[in-house]
Write a structure and sequence with these properties.
Blueprint: E1 4-7, H1 11-23, E2 27-33, H2 40-44, E3 47-52, H3 63-73, E4 77-79, H4 89-97, E5 101-102, H5 107-114, H6 116-126, E6 133-134, H7 141-151, E7 155-159, E8 169-171, H8 177-192, E9 197-201, E10 206-215, E11 221-233, E12 236-242, H9 249-265, E13 270-279, E14 289-295, H10 302-309, H11 313-321, E15 338-345, E16 347-348, E17 354-355, E18 358-359, E19 362-364, E20 375-379, E21 386-387, E22 394-402, H12 405-417, E23 420-422, H13 428-435, H14 438-441, H15 449-457, H16 465-475, H17 490-493, E24 502-509, E25 512-520, E26 525-530, E27 536-539, E28 546-549, E29 552-557, E30 560-565, H18 573-577, E31 582-584, E32 589-594, E33 601-602, E34 607-613, E35 616-621, E36 626-631, E37 637-638, E38 643-647
Parallel strand pairs: 1-2, 1-4, 2-3, 4-5
Antiparallel strand pairs: 6-9, 7-8, 7-9, 10-11, 10-13, 11-12, 12-15, 13-14, 15-22, 16-17, 18-21, 19-23, 20-22, 24-25, 25-26, 26-27, 28-29, 29-30, 31-38, 32-34, 32-37, 33-36, 34-35, 36-38
Helix pairs in contact: 4-5, 12-13
Bound molecules: ligand MV4.
Length: 653
């Protein structure tokens, strides 16, 4: 076995690989960019080497620097994780030429699966079912349109170099073929520098079911059952599960056998995934699945397979790469129960999932689902970290396992409801809604489900009076435990029998202001009146599901979180004034350029200033129409939460 490996990746997968390596007594070397100097994967590894600036092209994609780091630290092998250089055959050859081991398949295996049309031809020859279609070299339009007729409409035109849905066009009628073809070619050329396409029969109600395979360098290959990744949004997986709902013994037998054939055909070594498209319009049938592509790496969603099989896939990767045989033969591999993985992202479901940036001021995950089943959190960040714009904005993967699908789904929903993140907007509420969706719960999931139900799954929720009251209690400065006498708020928080002190707190949610009055009662309780509603009695315990962060307070409950803007008594006067219509810095940075003046009338979406943060420029645009009362000065250094722009208060706002 290796004594030291280098991990050519970042974030949760780098942390994940360190964990298994450590358990096996293998030392680890992390690599990192400027933006990642203080990140978790660097802290977790035994050693770390700086490899360049924040953009991936200057760091995590620099194979030469990564190999030099491995040589300099005496690492014997390189684990690529997923993404970045993990499926780059030229990198594999560079690693091997440097006398190091690539923890993954051979360059030849990666190349065999790299071009989708060639991979499909190869699989067809090996007897693996592929979607009826044309995967040939000739590309003239007359030939392609006659192939489309032969296949039968509707057809799908796909980029041969493709993946991720780019360069894909569904065509329902021969009259639309020429336009669709030129559109697909243009997109394919732009995305991959290759405008060649393939034509396939369009599969209705598609499901994405993939099979985990593993090979070694002695010609052995096994499968570790299937995962269902049909819950996707614009080709981004959202929730994955294993096994696939509704899978029959017959279908599983056919799919896993095809997957092992695929792996053996290319003498595959290491962890791989055979992705199939399944026509679920008539339930799962053994003659309704087709090979789509092979991912020649460990996948993001590998933990659901680990949960149902009890096998550590990273351990297997290390053993196989070190020249050992597969630790188990097929008959020794079984699965039990059901697992789900939800991908928690810094993104805004209400704004069509726009990626978000921000500082994770509060980051809290449940250790266990209320029913007692384990919750596994895979994350590469800790509280206080900033979500940088350079990399994938995934915050964590939440993985649950239980005896059956129903219990696992309950555990997933419960765990999401107990996940508390403040400082950046996240998709946690959306994930909780999806986990409770009737079709998803019934296992009736196809790749179009999220798109069809997006409005309901992302419906904006408004805080109830109880949430507003809890937010006000937190914002008022009352702490979870009784204050000490030298606390400036002690006198106010204390109970006074003769002079009940009423405190006023103003909170804003979106454009709406809430006036809250708090009175301290006996026994550490508080009467909280929201606007004109009847007072609600709260205790210090009600602060548990709240988080205070610069200029804001976030309250959590039942799968939703509400973030309010709040005047901060400790911030400067301008900040304290700022309420509705103020825009704050989402991360610490430098005000690089200011394009509006005090007194200007601006339109929603108009760029107001540029904030340089994490060595990247962010345009801060007006959130709504209005007149500027105050705007940050050019050259100002700001922390996150600092008010950058304040609007003149409008009557009725
Ligand atoms: C298809 C298809 C229907 N028919 N192929 C999308 C990305 C690429 N990996 C394959 N994709 C599809 N190929 C045929 N012949 C529908 C999709 C598809 C899809 C597939 C898997 C997961 C999500 C998807 C979402 C939309 C379309």
């Amino acid at each position: 076995m290796f004594s030291k490996i280098l991990i050519a990746n970042r974030g949760e997968i780098a942390v994940r690989v360190v964990r298994t390596a450590r358990r096996m007594g293998i030392r680890t070397v992390a690599v990192y960019s400027d933006a990642d100097a203080g990140s978790l994967h660097v802290a977790m590894a035994d050693e770390a080497v700086h490899i360049g600036a924040s953009p991936v092209g200057e760091s995590y994609l620099r194979g030469d620097r990564i190999i030099a780091a491995a040589k300099a630290t005496g690492a014997e092998a390189i684990h690529p994780g997923y993404g970045f250089l993990s499926e780059n055959p030229d990198f594999v050859e560079m690693v091997e030429a440097a006398g190091l081991v690539f923890i993954g398949p051979s360059a030849a295996s990666i190349r065999a699966m790299g071009l989708k049309d060639a991979a499909k031809r190869l699989m067809e020859e090996a007897g693996v079912p592929v979607v009826p279609g044309y995967h040939g070299e000739a590309q003239d339009i007359v030939l392609l349109s006659s192939k489309a007729r032969e296949i039968g409409y509707p057809v799908l035109i796909k980029a041969r170099a493709g993946g991720g849905g780019k360069g894909m066009r569904r065509v329902d009628h021969p009259d639309d073929f020429a336009d669709a073809l030129s559109g697909a070619r243009r997109e394919a050329q732009a995305a991959f520098g290759d405008d060649r396409v393939l034509i396939e029969k369009y599969v209705e109600k598609p499901r994405h079911i993939e099979v985990q395979v593993f090979g070694d360098n002695f010609g052995n290959a096994v499968h570790l059952f299937e995962r269902d990744c049909s819950a996707q949004r614009r080709h981004q997986k959202v929730i994955e599960e294993a096994p696939a709902p509704g899978m029959t013994a017959e279908m599983r037998q056919a799919m896993t056998e095809a997957a092992v054939t695929a792996a053996k055909t290319i003498s595959y070594s290491g962890a791989g995934t055979i992705e199939f498209i399944v026509d679920a319009s008539g339930g799962l049938k053994p003659d309704r699945f087709w090979f789509m592509e092979m991912n020649t790496r460990l996948q993001v969603e590998h933990p659901v397979t680990e949960m149902i099989t009890g096998i550590d896939l990273v351990e297997w990767q290390l053993r196989v790469a070190a020249g050992e045989k597969l630790p188990k033969c097929q008959e020794e591999i079984a699965f039990s129960g059901h697992a789900f993985e939800a991908r928690i992202y810094a993104e805004d479901p209400e704004r069509d999932f726009l990626p978000a940036i921000g500082t994770l001021h509060h980051l809290e995950f449940p250790q266990k689902a209320p029913a007692g089943s384990p919750v596994r959190i895979e994350t590469g960040v800790h509280q206080g970290d900033t979500i940088s714009p350079y990399y994938d904005p995934m915050i964590a993967k939440l993985v649950v396992h239980a005896d059956d699908r129903r219990s696992a789904l309950d555990a997933l929903a419960d765990a999401l409801k107990e996940t508390r993140i403040a400082g950046s907007v996240t998709n946690v509420g959306f994930l909780a809604a999806l986990a409770q969706d009737a079709d998803f719960t019934a296992g009736d999931v196809d790749t179009g489900l999220i798109g069809r139900k997006q409005a309901a799954l992302t419906a904006k929720r408004r805080p109830d009076a109880g949430s507003i009251a809890r937010a006000a209690l937190a914002a008022s400065g009352i702490t979870p435990t009784e204050t000490s006498p030298d606390d400036p708020w002690a006198a106010l928080a204390g109970y006074s029998h003769f002079h009940p002190i009423e405190r006023q707190v103003s909170l804003h949610f979106d454009a709406q202001e809430h006036a809250v009055a708090l009175v301290t009662l006996a026994d550490n309780r508080f009467a909280v009146r929201v606007d004109t509603a009847a007072p609600i009695t709260l205790s210090r315990d009600d602060l548990a599901a709240t988080a205070l962060w610069p200029g804001h307070v976030t309250v959590f409950g039942n799968g939703a979180s509400f973030t309010f803007t709040v005047p901060d008594p400790f911030a400067n006067a301008a900040d304290a004034e700022a309420g509705v219509g103020s825009m704050r810095a989402p991360m610490p940075g430098l005000v690089k350029l200011v394009r509006a003046d005090k007194g200007d009338t601006v339109k929603k979406g108009q760029p107001l200033l540029i904030l340089e943060a994490m060595k990247m420029e962010h345009t801060i645009a007006a959130l709504h129409d209005g007149t500027i009362a105050e705007i940050a000065a050019e050259g100002a250094q700001v922390t996150d939460g600092t008010v950058l722009v304040r609007f003149v208060e409008q009557a009725g706002a």
